[in-house]
Amino acid sequence: MTAPTRRKRPETRYDHDRDALGALLDQHPTYRVDQLWQGLYAEGLELEDISTLPKALRADLGELLPRALHERTQRISEGGETHKWLWGLADGDAVETVLMHYPGRSTVCVSSQAGCAMACGFCATGQEGFRRHLTTGEIVEQVIRAREAAKPRRLSNVVFMGMGEPLANYDAVWGAVRRIHGDLGLSARHITMSTVGVVPGIRRMAEESLPVSLAVSLHASTDELRNELVPLNKQYPIDVLAEACAGYVAASGRRLSFEWALIDGVNDTRDQATHLAELCRELRAHVNLIPLNPTPGYPTIGTPPEGVARFQRWLQDAGTNATIRRNRGTDIDAACGQLRASQMKDGGQSVAAPRRRSTR
Ligand code: SAH
User: Fold this and answer.
1) What is the pLDDT of residues 57-86, one digit of tens each?
2) 326: pLDDT confidence band, cut at 50, 70 and 90?
3) Gap from CA of 125 to ligand 1 centroid (Å)
4) 221 Cβ partners below 8 Å, 6+ apart?
5) Which of 42, 53, 295, 334 is the most exposed place for a label (fewest CB within 10 A)?
6) pLDDT digit string, tens, across residues 242-259
7) Residue 292 beta carbon below 6 angstroms from any ligand 1 atom
8) 282 is catalytic
9) Residue of 109, 120, 123, 336 with catalytic role
10) Are 122 and 229 in contact (CB under 8 A)?
11) Is the CB of 61 under 6 A from ligand 1?
């Protein structure tokens, strides 16, 4: 898929890999490239703080390597375990990044597109429609900003579960995966690609040398229901998707996981659990259950806790491994696309204090 209008944007700081930094500094000794790379990638410094570089050079580089992300809003949940940013981009658009802290380590959830063309009705980003792809630099910078904010905790995992469909922006996303692995030192299995089921992208991933983890946002185990919840299913129905997943599991050796947002009275039925368990057996997949987060454009609510527990039990009784994930940061609009949606509604003004949202 390509953007409807392809404007040439100036490259930003983290669009430059080591070779591109070398080209930028071709009039300088090569150790300057190492110092610049070290400052930007290994230490996550601001250019003016890379003290190994001469002052005049730092100033010049400031012009040549602009940041991609400008903080519009930042919110930290009560207790401080979830940290969310709304970033303004150079062209005026905005995307979100969420950082989640666990004991001793942190995970960042990054956006891959501004908006999304997949049109899943229950998703706040899907409700907005597609605006443009993010560049590799815009994705990598989300990881670096989060890594710096996480300190002294170690940023151990990157998940492509923010705004957008990563496999619809394959080249820029895979460029970021390579950078996150090679320049930031995260192992491939600690990088998770989450997709609605873009089959050509899953097949391409199977050809790559980095075996990242794959999560498929399934949400329904029959084509009839999945066509409704995830419109892309009409193009790549469940059996075609399952075959691509099997190919990926065989090629990568990674365990597959299915994401399942439980929607009250819609996909929390016995019948859905039965078909899901069959699929999981075939693919040796694990299920992550999460009650649906309310969004402005979707009238249905998340399954109440007893329904979530029942659905998990049905899966477990059928031999399927299923984990209930906590809804994190609902007090700071941390569900996919919610912060941007609420900010646009508020006229784009910064709201400093977290607003409470009910999860029901
Ligand atoms: N497009 C990719 C990645 C972004 S969405 C994908 O679909 O996988 C990340 C996850 O959040 C997906 O599993 C998505 O289905 C889920 N999600 C979207 N809206 C949600 C909501 N309102 N409540 C709970 N989960 C939601």
Assistant:
1) 999 999 999 999 999 999 998 888 999 999
2) confident
3) 9
4) 238, 272, 273, 274, 275, 276, 278, 279
5) 42
6) 999 999 999 999 999 999
7) yes
8) no
9) 336
10) yes
11) no
